[in-house]
Fold:
Amino acid sequence: METKIINSVEIASDEIVKGNVVGLPTETVYGLGADALNEDAVLKIYETKKRPDFNPLIVHVSDVQEFEKYATDIPNDVYKLADFFSPGPITFILKKKDIISDIVTAGLDTVAIRVPSHELFRFVLKLSKKPIAAPSANMFGRISPTTAEDVLKELNGKLHYILDGGKSSVGIESTVLSFEGGRVTVLRHGYITKEDVEKVVGRTVYDYEESVSSGKISSPGLLKSHYAPMTPLYLAEHTFDLKRLIDELDEDNIEGLTKDNIGIMDFSTYDNFRELAKHLFSDLRNLDERNYKMLFASKVKNLKLGRAINDRLDRASAGTIKYEDRKIIFRNK
Ligand code: AMP
Ligand code: MG
Structure:
């Protein structure tokens, strides 16, 4: 099968209507979309990216008003949050209606719903008149794509078309929120931060770990490793000066590591977390293509959007590094 990058929303929409998968731009990352109401089409998503069938998909719709078609018992907080942040990178976990197949939700009785803001994705929703199930358009466990070319590299020969919508403006996946147990829990950190959500709902918002350990929500079984580059990535604490380490490595040649065979993710070129988030996956992808022996990155301050960035780094990493007594201490995951 030949895979083409296209600019036609009509062709992309036709693919959805025909029950095929298509690469679609969103503001978060590129998605691999299919008609969410067509089980065979949804199965093609899992097959194409080799996603395990226990990992549920997000259903994309064009408007908050549509939530009621696919979900029931929608808490008021959802409407409050949607007022502020939808269309945008925020996903709501809601009690599903029967019209949503178990294949979409991996057997869960809840469905993940989001209203994307990317103009072209919205156009495809409007033309196809279908809700679109779409995970990130990468092979399972690999780095999420943020350009049409990235999708081509990941899935060449596995789909007919990738709709080109430029570089994703957000660059990391949506914030996923659960409303189980009468509380708001962040299942996945994203562009919309916990603080943003707290301001709107006017009460404490919990982290996934807090809500699971206190028995307030059931665990949907989030996967630890994800977004992994081929080259092993090691993470240092955010206070750690990687550049200094590299200078010292060059003097001592510790463990055969030198300036030339280590790729450093240099975040100092970005003015703020938003810029960093936008370029995080593409930087990782670029370094991964350069045949380094290892990649090093320092985490960022675990605050606001920093939490989502650290989460992606953690998942992409093979382990951590420390530097003590002129020795690098590696700890694998
Ligand atoms: P992806 O679209 O690949 O970026 O991943 C979708 C994310 O949403 C994953 O982290 C899923 O575990 C999560 N998700 C989707 N549906 C549900 C659900 N019904 N309950 C909890 N998490 C979900
Ligand atoms: Mg993904």
Remarks:
- The mean pLDDT is 93.
- Residues 55-56, 58, 93, 105, 108, 110-112, 135-136, 173, 176, 187-188, 220, 222 surround adenosine monophosphate (ligand 1) (CB under 6 Å).
- The domain at 4-207 is CATH 3.90.870.10 (DHBP synthase).
